[in-house]
Design a protein that fits this description.
The structure is a single chain. This protein is of the alpha/beta class. It folds into three domains: 5-94, no CATH class; 110-200, no CATH class; 231-450, Rossmann fold, CATH 3.40.50. It is built from 24 helices and ten strands. It has an eight-stranded mixed β-sheet, sandwiched between helices.
Length: 459
């Protein structure tokens, strides 16, 4: 659809990254052209990218319907695509631009690479290892050794499995302060001085070294949460207006993401469930966090929730808006078969789930133990992501030394409330999981069943 240039400029102007556009396309800057006008008029047709996070050609390749429309892809994304849940493709220039900007900000000039340095580094540089661990470099076609010597080491990329840049610079602050190429330094003199190229303390040490407080991870989730255009209750009512059961039979599922767009074990379970209830002619309502969230929520002030109706995306709603919309949408449904299944509580609160289940007319449902979200914020029961903890009693000393300890009681409280107000049958994918879950006896299910997701059979 053709869009007037003035309208296009109003939409594109705030989103186009002028610094990026000027740096990547100096011919435009040198010509004195207005950058937004250039992109809106000609730049997108020439395949130029407006920002590090958006590839003009990549978006068109990902969405051929947009390409067929013949319009400006960046304008399409900003005005319609993001509301439709379309994902942008990062510019191929993004890494180079962002690294160069960071180096300039940090005051780090490129260190000249001499022929002697390159020859020395080549003796122990593992090109196969480097390309395998850095697929972006492999895709770019750059010489891996040249990339490492000029830029890769500044980005923390290791030249071989035997040399770890982070370890070497941490253990040798004089080398870090000097700003020299650490790998070349090690080969030229560090090894003969007895300096260690890589700590070899095992994967457990590496896991602990990478461990971050859960509060920091939550902050990252908020920063990196995808932009969500929130819908109103009326949108939910409209989305649920079409019924394949004659507004009678309904099955509701809750999980941690959109099972129709993400691949995984939990997602496969919900997919099979959706297909089965579809074959039975029941309507299927699926509710999930609109952006990933690693712990349970509380109350009705949590993150936005995405909604699928019979496999079709309806939109994203604040929990309170979702509840209000469901009350209206289901108010005139006739008596019929009602059921629900909780596959994950990550991103959900007990209040939200209980309210939805009761509005849907179902108080009895199933709770799947695909993991141990009901027992701890560390859903795999790995203390500090390393050792199996076995779900000790809440408040134990073991929880006091675990990164997930401060959030464990939150998970227990939310799930205890679920089991107190709903008639839940626990379903586990294996007897081992069931036994572990039953060992934490503060939950009170109506029943418990083992339902393997798959069975091995002789060929």
């Amino acid at each position: 659809m053709a869009v007037g240039l003035d309208r296009s400029l109003l939409v594109l102007g705030p989103a186009l990254d002028a610094d990026f556009y000027r740096a990547i396309y100096p011919d435009i800057a040198d010509a004195g052209r207005d950058l937004v006008t250039h992109y809106a008029d000609a730049g997108w047709r020439e395949g130029r990218d407006p920002a590090p996070w958006f590839s003009t050609s990549g978006y068109l390749e990902r969405y051929p319907d947009v390409a067929r429309g013949g319009g400006n892809p960046f304008y399409h994304y900003l005005s319609a695509g993001r509301r439709e849940g379309r994902e942008p493709v990062a510019s191929a220039h993004a890494v180079d631009y962002l690294v160069a900007r960071k180096l300039a900000r940090d005051g780090k000039a490129d260190i000249p690479v001499t022929a002697a340095d390159r020859a020395l580094a080549a003796t122990e540089f593992d090109a196969t290892y480097y390309l395998f661990n850095n697929p972006d470099v492999a895709a770019s076609g750059q010489d891996p050794l040249d990339h490492f010597l000029v830029r890769g080491w500044k980005e923390g990329r290791d030249p071989s499995r035997d040399f770890h840049l982070g370890d070497y610079l941490e253990l040798n602050p004089d080398v870090a302060a000097a700003g020299v190429q650490p790998f070349v330094h090690y080969l030229a003199q560090g090894r003969s001085e007895g300096r260690i190229a890589r700590r070899r303390l095992g994967f457990r040490h590496d896991a602990v070294a990478r461990l971050r407080p859960l509060q920091e991870r939550l902050a990252d989730c908020e920063v990196w949460a995808r932009a969500v255009d929130l819908n109103e209750a009326a949108d939910l009512v409209e989305g649920l207006a079409t019924s394949r059961s004659g507004r009678r039979d309904l099955h509701v599922t809750f999980s941690h993401d959109n099972y129709a767009a993400v691949v995984g074990g939990v997602q496969a379970s919900v997919q099979r469930e959706a297909a089965r209830f579809g074959a039975l002619g029941r309507d299927h309502l699926h509710i999930y966090p609109a952006s990933p969230w690693p712990i349970v929520s509380t109350g009705l002030d949590g993150p936005p929730l995405g909604v699928l109706w019979n496999g079709v995306k309806v939109g994203a709603f604040r929990p309170q808006t979702l509840i209000a919309g469901l009350r209206t949408a289901l108010a005139d449904w006739r008596d019929g078969r009602r059921s629900f299944a909780i596959h994950s509580m990550l991103g959900h609160s007990s209040r939200e789930v209980i309210d939805v289940a009761r509005i849907a007319g179902a108080n009895a449902g199933h709770y799947w133990t695909h993991d141990f979200t009901s027992l701890c914020a560390g859903i795999h029961l790995l203390r500090n992501d390393i050792a199996n903890c076995g779900a000790p009693p809440p408040g134990s000393a073991a929880c006091g030394i675990c990164v997930y300890g401060p959030y464990r009681q939150l998970h227990i409280d939310e799930h205890t409330r679920l089991f107190r107000h709903l008639d839940l049958t626990v379903v586990s994918p294996s007897q081992v999981v069931m036994d572990t879950w039953r060992g934490a006896d503060w939950m009170d299910p109506v029943d418990a069943k083992v339902a393997p997701l798959a069975r091995l059979t002789p060929a």
